[in-house]
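Ligand-bound model needed. (2S)-2-hydroxybutanedioic acid.
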Amino acid sequence: MTVVLTPYWSNGVQKLRAMLQRKHTLSFSRRASNFHRTLGTLAPPKLPKGLTPTVLDDETHYARCLAQLRSKDKPLEKYIYLSQLKEHDHHMFYKLCLHNMPEITPLIYTPTVGDACIQYSHIYRKPEGLYLSYKDKGNLGKIIRNWPRLNDARISVVTDGSRILGLGDLGINGMPIAIGKLSLYVAGAGIRPDSTVPIVLDLGTNNQAFLDDPLYLGLRQKRISDEEMNAFMDEFMHEMSTAFPKLLVQFEDFSTDHAFSYLERFRNKYPVFNDDIQGTGAVVLSGFLNAAKLSSAASGRPLSSHRILFLGSGSAGVGVAMQLMSFFKLQGLSEEEARDRISLVDSQGLIYNARGPMAEHKKFFSRRDYAGPPLTNLIDIIEHVKPTALLGLSTIKSAFNQQVIEAMAELNPRPIIFPLSNPVRLSECEFHEAVTWSKGQVIFASGSPFPVQEYQGRTYYPGQGNNMYIFPGLGLAAILSRASTVTDIMVEASSLGLADSLTPEERELDMIYPRVERIRDISNHIACAVIRAAQKAGVDRNQDLRRMNDAQLSDFVKSRMWIP
Ligand SMILES: NC(=O)c1ccc[n+]([C@@H]2O[C@H](COP(=O)([O-])OP(=O)(O)OC[C@H]3O[C@@H](n4cnc5c(N)ncnc54)[C@H](O)[C@@H]3O)[C@@H](O)[C@H]2O)c1
Ligand SMILES: O=C(O)C[C@H](O)C(=O)O
Ligand SMILES: [Mg+2]
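Prediction:
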C-alpha cells in the first residue's frame, strides 16, 4: 500500500486522522504500534501532542455533525453552521444533505436562504464565490480568470440580486441564492463540487436600507442604467465563455424585464438557461400534468377543458404560462385554443387588451375576449374566468384567502391550487388552510415546503412545485451531453421526465411530485430524457452518448454522479 503522508500533514492532523479512519479502525495516538504495522514499512510520524484519543470515524462524526446542527434553535444559525461545515468538510456537508433532504433542503435553500440573503452582509465570514462589480467593467476577463478551478468549472449560477425570491432587490446579498442552487446541483444530481461557480454581479442596488447600512458589502450606488447593464452583460458572457469553455450558465433571480431580455440575448449564443422562467415552467408543467389527471378524474371533464388562472405575471408567472401551453397542445389543442385556456392577473387585475399599454412579456396572454370594466378583485376574476386551477406567483401573502379557496372548491370537485411564491412567508396560502377550506379536496403544490397535514383522519401530502426538482437534472444533462444550447424541447423533456418519475406508491397517495429523498434517481431520469432531447435537436457536442441504449445511458449518468 502506498501512503503519501506529506500533504496530509501539511493539511492538518484532522485530515490524516480522517484518512486513516477511512482505511483502518485504530486509535491513533494510543496504538502507534498497530499504526506502524498497518502501514507496513513506514515509520510512525511524530504526532503533535494534544489530540483527542479517539479517532474520528465517519459514522460517529456524521452523528456528531447532525447533533450539532439540530442543537441550534434558529434556521439562520443552522444555515451558518452548514455553510461553515461545507467550507471545512464538504464531504460531510453533502452526506448530511443526501441523508436528510427534507430536513436540510429548507435550510440551505428556500425558505432559510431568503433570510441568509437579507442578512448576508451581516453574517458574512469569507468569500464563497465570484463577486464581479460594475467597477470591474473592462477587466472582467482578468478577474474571472482568478477563479482557482478554471478547468474544472462546468456550471455557474449567476444572479444580479435584483429580485431575490419574492424579497425584491437585495444587491450583492443575492450571493447565497447562487450558492444554495449549486449545493442542490451537487446534492441532487451529483455535480462535482469543484465544478460549480457561484457568481453575483454587483451592479448597484435600489435598496436604500442596504445603501445606508455600514456593513453592506456591495457597491454603494443605485443600479446602473439598462444601457450600461447590456454592455456589462455582453462583456461578462463573452469573458465567461472564453475562460470557461465547458460552462453552462444558469441565470437566477434577475428582475423580470432583464430575466426575459438576457435569456433572449444569449440563449442562441451560449449554453444558458433562466431558472425562473424555464426551470419554474418545467416544474409546474410537470406537477400540473399529474394534478390535472386527478382533478379530471373527480370532475369527469376532459383534460383539454382545464382553465388556468395566474395571480402574478412576472418572469415566473409568464414563464410558467408559456410552458403550460404544452399541456394543452399535448391534449390536441391549437396554439390559439391553448392560449385561451390561460388568464393572467397582475397588480392592476385581469390582463386584457382593452386595458391599455402593457409590458411586452404580458401581451401574449392578454385577453382579447374581454373589454372591461377592469376586474381587480380576485373573487370577481374567478367568477369571470371559472378556472379549474389557480396558480400564485405574485409574492402576495394570503392572497388565496378562505373566500378564494371556497370559490375554487365550489367550481371544482378537486380544485388545483398552487401558491408558488417564495419564501414561505410570501406564499399565497398555507397548506393547512387550503386543505381545511377546500374540505380536503385541494390538489396542492407550493414553492416552499409545508409540513404534511392530517385532516379528518386522513394524511395529506403537499407537493413542492419548486424548480429545484428540474435544474439539477437539466444541468447534468447539458454538461454530460456538452449541449451547445439549452433548447425548449430539452426543457420540456425535463418536465415530462419529472412527471413520469413518480412511483406507484407516490401516485397511490395522490402525490403530484416525487419525494425529495429520491432526488438522485429523479435527476438521473430527467437527465436521460434531456440528453435524448439534446440528441434529437443535434445540440449535443458529446455524441458518444448516442450509441448507448436507455439502460446504458442511465448507468452512465449514474456513474458520473459524485458521491460524498
Ligand atoms: N416555485 C418556484 O419554483 C418559483 C420559481 C420562480 C419564482 N418563484 C416566485 O414567484 C414570485 C414572483 O417572481 P417573479 O420573478 O415573477 O417576480 P415579479 O416581481 O416580476 O412578479 C410578480 C408579479 O406579481 C404581480 N403582483 C404584485 N402584486 C400583486 C397583487 N396585489 N395582485 C396581483 N398581482 C400582483 C406583479 O404585477 C407581477 O406581475 C416570487 O415570490 C418568486 O420567489 C417561485
Ligand atoms: O429559489 C427558489 O426557491 C425558487 C425560485 O427560483 C425563486 O426564485 O423563487
Ligand atoms: Mg429563482
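Residues 252-253, 275-276 surround magnesium ion (ligand 3) (CB under 6 Å).
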